[in-house]
């Protein structure tokens, strides 16, 4: 397992928070990132909007 700083993938989160001490498995997160639709952010904006309407 290749460990890297979690901040490397902050760009896929709607709210980007630095976590300098957190490490993640590079291969797992790269697979996740490469399979996300272009422009996708977590949490899914459509889900967030739907939740606000309730």
Q: Can you put this structure into words, describing what you see?
A:
The protein has 54 residues and is of the alpha+beta class. It has one domain (3-53). The chain is 33% helix and 11% strand. It has helices spanning 26-34, 45-53; strands at residues 3-5, 23-25. Strands 1-2 form a two-stranded antiparallel sheet. The longest helix has 9 residues, at 26-34. It is globular and about 40 Å long.
Features:
alpha+beta, 54 residues, 11% strand, two-stranded antiparallel ribbon
Briefly characterize the structure.
The protein is an alpha+beta fold. The protein has 2 helices and 2 strands, in the order ββαα. The chain has one domain (3-53).
List the helices and strands and how they pair.
Elements: E1 3-5, E2 23-25, H1 26-34, H2 45-53
Antiparallel strand pairs: 1-2
Radius of gyration: 13 Å
Assign an overall shape.
globular
Q: Beta-sheet strand percentage?
A: 5-15%
Count of DSSP strands? 2
């Amino acid at each position: 397992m290749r460990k890297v700083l979690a901040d490397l993938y902050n760009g896929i989160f709607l709210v980007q928070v630095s976590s300098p001490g957190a490490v993640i498995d590079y291969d797992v997160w790269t697979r996740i990132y490469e399979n996300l639709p272009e422009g996708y952010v977590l949490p899914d904006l459509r889900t967030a909007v739907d939740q606000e309407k309730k």
